[in-house]
């Protein structure tokens, strides 16, 4: 069993409170992704789970056992960091075998475990190489392999792909997705800044802000039913447009949120909002139009394929059907067009778990 239960967890450095009343129930075998702005406490939360940081208050259970005072090496956890820190003078095989040698694992068993991990990560052809003769993605896979051979109950990843270039990120992301499938009983907790990694890898995403859990849910729950302006703006890229003041008044809300992909351009000024195009980006597959409708922030409208709209043009647009979100003065959701507000929108974290 590798379920994790975090109850009323606080982390303080002196009088700085970095994590505040964290409550999470993570099921055995789940893939959980932590997201949130820089400095919100993602790495600290991961490090308290691993035991690299102590807990100031609260309780952490792994597999039904309270581990607050259990040493990191005895928690059944393996952690993979952003910088992979391999031993440069050791081959791939020896890097992966190192922790097993330390625990005096028999030679034949080491051989079996390392070869199985190398196979899973497509590293078999490189076992005799030194790290300097590997690409960044291959090195990161060695770091993951080093963790796999220890057969952890819980895998912790802290932005493992952020040092890789775009193509390698995609390839290694797919390796991690395959890893998750091949280890269905292993719980994985993954920190990232990357929207695509969060949306594609996660069974559930935990959104953190200033050391507080803002919302927990499946990627689509967060995308479709953000419970706060913060989560609405944080999940999705480019981020949700927020229309306020007179622009929101017809919708009887303090703020109306519409994702760029949920805007549609209407001819002859017939849209809910109109303005001047200040900038447009053609990406080939789709395009983004930035329009000034008299708010501080430009409104972004996504169109399929190339756009006929360019700087200086006048443009008018509306949400597609019910695809908009209404928020009150406090930033709480009021429901959208035909979509009823989710039940109990105020206290999502503990109740939904
Ligand atoms: N040893 C420490 N002493 C004091 N404050 C610390 C210490 N370690 C971290 N912090 C503070 O705790 C907060 C959370 O840091 P943490 O590294 O968990 O953020 P993060 O969400 O992982 O950010 P990033 O996305 O930039 O990696 C930050 O404000 C940081 O300055
Ligand atoms: Mg961090």
Overall mean confidence score, pLDDT: 90
Gyration radius (Cα, Å) is 24 Å
Biggest beta sheet attributes: 6 strands, mixed
CATH class of the domain at 241-352: Mainly Beta
Percent helix range = 10-25%
Strand elements, count: 19
**Shape call:** globular
Biggest sheet strand line-up: 6-7-8-3-9-10
Distance between the first and last residues' Cα? 18 Å
As a percent range, the share of strand residues is 25-35%
| CATH fold-level label of the domain at 241-352 | OB fold (Dihydrolipoamide Acetyltransferase, E2P)
Please give the count of helices. 9
Commentary on this structure:
The structure is a single chain. The protein is α+β, with helices and mostly antiparallel strands and 353 residues long. It has a domain at 241-352: Beta Barrel (OB fold (Dihydrolipoamide Acetyltransferase, E2P)). Helices cover 25% and strands 30% of the residues. It has 9 helices and 19 strands. It has helices at residues 42-50, 92-102, 107-120, 136-148, 166-182, 195-201, 219-224, 229-234, 348-352, and strands spanning 4-13, 16-26, 31-35, 57-62, 65-66, 77-80, 154-158, 187-191, 204-209, 212-217, 241-244, 255-258, 263-265, 273-282, 286-292, 299-304, 314-319, 325-327, 333-335. Strands 6-7-8-3-9-10 form a 6-stranded mixed sheet, with helices on both faces. The chain has a 5-stranded antiparallel sheet with strand order 13-17-14-15-16, with no helix packed on it. Strands 2-1-4-5 form a 4-stranded antiparallel sheet, with helices on one face. A hairpin with a 2-residue loop joins β1 and β2 (16-26). α2 packs across α3 (107-120) and α2 (92-102) runs parallel beside α4 (136-148). The longest helix has 17 residues, at 166-182. The chain is globular. The model is unreliable at 338-353 (pLDDT under 50). Bound molecules: adenosine-5'-triphosphate and magnesium ion. Magnesium ion is lined by residues 42-43.
């Amino acid at each position: 069993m590798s379920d994790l239960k975090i109850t009323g967890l606080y982390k303080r450095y002196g009088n700085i409170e970095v994590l505040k009343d964290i409550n999470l129930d993570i099921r055995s075998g789940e893939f959980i992704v932590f997201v949130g702005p820089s400095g919100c406490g993602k790495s600290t939360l991961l490090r308290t789970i691993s035991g690299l940081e102590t807990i100031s208050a609260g309780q952490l259970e792994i597999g039904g056992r309270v581990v607050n005072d259990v040493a990191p090496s005895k928690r059944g956890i393996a952690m993979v960091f952003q910088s992979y820190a391999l031993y440069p003078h050791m081959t791939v095989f020896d890097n992966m075998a190192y922790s097993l040698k330390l625990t005096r694992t028999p030679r034949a068993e080491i051989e079996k475990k390392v070869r199985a991990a190398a196979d899973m990560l497509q590293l078999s052809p490189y076992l005799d190489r030194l790290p300097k003769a590997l690409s960044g993605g291959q090195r990161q896979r060695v770091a993951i392999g080093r963790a796999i051979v220890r057969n952890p109950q819980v895998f912790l990843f802290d932005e493992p792909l952020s040092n890789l270039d775009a193509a390698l990120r995609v390839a290694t992301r797919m390796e991690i997705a395959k890893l998750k499938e091949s280890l269905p009983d292993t719980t994985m907790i993954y920190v990232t800044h990357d929207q695509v990694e969060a949306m594609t890898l996660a069974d559930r995403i935990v959104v953190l802000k200033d050391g507080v859990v803002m919302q927990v849910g499946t990627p689509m729950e967060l995308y479709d039913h953000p419970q706060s302006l913060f989560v609405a703006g944080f999940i999705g890229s480019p981020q949700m447009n927020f229309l306020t003041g007179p622009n929101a008044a017809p919708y009887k809300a303090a703020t109306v949120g519409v994702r760029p992909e949920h805007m549609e351009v209407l001819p002859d000024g017939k849209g809910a909002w109109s303005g001047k195009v200040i900038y447009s980006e053609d990406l080939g597959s789709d395009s983004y139009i930035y329009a000034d409708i008299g708010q501080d922030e430009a409104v972004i409208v996504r169109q399929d394929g190339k756009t006929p709209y360019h700087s200086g043009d006048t443009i008018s647009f509306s949400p597609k059907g019910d695809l908009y979100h209404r928020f009150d003065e406090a930033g709480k959701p009021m429901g959208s067009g035909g979509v009823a507000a989710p039940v109990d929108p105020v206290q999502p974290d503990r109740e939904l778990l």
